[in-house]
Automatic annotation (TrEMBL):
InterPro entries from the UniProt entry: ArAA_hydroxylase, ArAA_hydroxylase_sf, Aro-AA_hydroxylase_C_sf, Aromatic-AA_hydroxylase_C
Listed name of the protein: Phenylalanine-4-hydroxylase
Domain Biopterin-dependent aromatic amino acid hydroxylase family profile: residue ranges: 1-340
Xref: Gene3D superfamilies: 1.20.58.690, Aromatic amino acid hydroxylase
SUPFAM superfamilies found in the cross-reference section: Aromatic aminoacid monoxygenases, catalytic and oligomerization domains (SSF56534)
Necessary cofactors: Fe(2+)
NCBIfam families: PRK14056.1
Keywords, ordered alphabetically: Iron, Metal-binding, Monooxygenase, Oxidoreductase
Amino acid sequence: MKYISNPVLDKLPAHLQQYIKPQDYNEYSAIDQAVWRYVMRKNVDYLSKVAHASYLEGLKKTGISIDHIPNMYGMNRILKEIGWAAVAVDGFIPPSAFMEFQAYNVLVIASDIRQLDHIEYTPAPDIIHEGAGHAPIIANPEYAEYLRRFGEIGCKAISNAKDYELYEAVRHLSIIKEAPGTPQEEIDKAEKHIEDLQNNMGEPSEIALIRNLHWWTVEYGLIGTPENPKIYGAGLLSSIGESAWCMTDKVKKIPYSIDAAYTSFDITQPQPQLFVTPDFAYLSQVLEEFANTMALRRGGLKGIQKLIESKELGTIELSTGLQISGNFDRVIEHEGKPAFFQTLGPTALSFREKELVGHSTKQHATGFGSPIGKLKGINLAIEDMSPLDLKAYNIFEGQQVSLEFEGHIKVAGEIITGTRNLQGEIILVTFKNCRVSHKDKVLFESNDELYNMAVGREIVSAFNGPADLNSFDLVTHKISSSTIKVKADSAQSKLGQYYEQIRHFREGKNTTISRHKVFEAIRDDYPNDWLLPVELYELAKENGDNDFAQEIAAHLETVKLNNPKAGHLIDDGLNLVNHKFETEKLK
């Protein structure tokens, strides 16, 4: 582990720690710092008018500076005070892992920063989006609890195979789009692949639906009324283009509801509509409404079928509280209810998220199968039987029994023992010389191997992941592709040195640098660079050197002619400086 921990991070399980990478602060160039400063100054100036009040307060509370890219260690010292922490990761991580971090009050921050060419928007997660977008709002206690609760519920959402394929495709696109020099045809191909996947996802999985909720709240949420909304979503707070665009009439404002879960999105385009919540408490209300639709709370036949389709490690919980974690392979149904289930491969049994002694993946290495439901012709379920009832039906140690369930499942063998939960209810019955059959088909037969039959009238819950995190080795993440680090060529390195000189001048580290000479070098050797001249313009205005400021402004007019796409960025930068000095004059 190469990152500095704190009490919040100490609680993270190993399978989440595998995603964390150290933030190498020295890797940020002076150009990166200038990009951060430009976006933050512009954002704070604009967002002070249109963002939720928590944004500006949160910037102060979370220790995020306008002038410097945040250092994760510094942020963590401050976040600790509000019970949160931040970690650096490499771009996109799987949605369930992202949400599980939130459940532990940990903010996941992609530590890379967008290139100057993508200063307004990048599809790749970056420190502007995460640090300047997500972090400030969590200083609001109501919103922070929503985020934590969202993570807790979201990481239990069941996915399907196509979800992971889409995640990998989106991650790949974000990497190549942010990498300099990627051929346009490669980007077009990646975008087409995502479009094809999105058009052929079939019925959306739980993770797909809850990801929609996340997008329309945490990333692109508005708060207030549709007529007078304020911004709180991180995607809007960190995008100088979209934060202005979203306030226009071109973007439809819809009152927030559970409908947002069934509204898909396209990460490559500005959003055509946004949802407006009346307050942060209402977000939690809709989240609970959505959670009521999940297998986590509904269980049943549909719940286990979702786990089978997901082909991922999952858990079912029976009405006795017994939890079975593994890869679910099949279910036998009877009259719309599960009658028998089977896992394949390592399986663990737990109660209240704690593995039962003697029921680890070693004991159930090849799978676990059991009937569910009531015995045929008996209204009383086994779990509801008193010791006298059990004796009356011969369900006790040393008895040779044949138990027939309503779903035509028969378990015949000698009872060895029973395992009870804390309430005294029987949750497992262990047999030897056992045979399990469905109608005429034998499902399990053994003389030497013991058979454990789960006791449960019904499946009350089905969810992604294991009940006890310690039951399985979950440290298996393999990154399919990493963000592309491009080494600066000699011209770019030299440009970076000029940025660094001006940064040192502004911070008072070296005031002997000739700003005029730097400007001449930029004008002659880097005629398309606009951000450093804007910084030089600010310094000229600060020093009252109006002639120099005019000379820079005239040069920037030429840059605008040669690079029209940068025109509004230049204008915004100059207006920001001019407004600052006009305001100071009025004071």
